[in-house]
Design a protein that fits this description.
The protein is of the alpha+beta class. It has 5 helices and 8 strands; from the N terminus they run ββααββαβαβαββ. Helices cover about 30% and strands about 35% of the residues. The chain has an 8-stranded mixed beta sheet with strand order 1-2-3-4-5-6-8-7, sandwiched between helices. α1 packs across α2.
Length: about 180
Amino acid sequence: MTIDACSLLETPLGSFQLRRAMEGEEKIMFQLLTAVAEDMVIQQRNQWIPDMFSMDLMREYLKEREVWILYDNDTPAGMFTLQDSDPAYWGERNHPDYSYLHRFAILPQYRGMELGSRMIDFAENRSKQQKKRGLRLDCVSHLPSLNEYYQGLGYHFVAAQQLTNRTVHLYEKSWVDMTS
């Protein structure tokens, strides 16, 4: 399956479109991420805060990463980014043969619809199409349910990484053995 600029995600509650973001969609990305961050603050998750996002950062994401936005018809519902390298989180473990998932976000009203697992399936297939050996992601260590979610999707724990103000758990799913 070739994955280009658009893909249809089927769920029991309907179809959603996952589209590659383009220049001019920075405001949509910003609104998605700040809305999810505001929800995290309300829930006291100690994960993202709205002030960490800016329009300049959205422009940077579009230049340096693939950005994918999930749409319910024409209404943005979620997003994630994929990048080829992540030395800031992975340090010496960083490897260009992996894709790195970041800014995985689904608006609260769209949670519980299996969209997250479908979006990650898409990211895995995108990584396979790009001949990557696997997909990596990080997760704050203080949210056990979120860590369990990724483990339930087949991601295995690699290491705990201390960042400036928090500890993250590094996860990966490999489909090619790195030792071969």
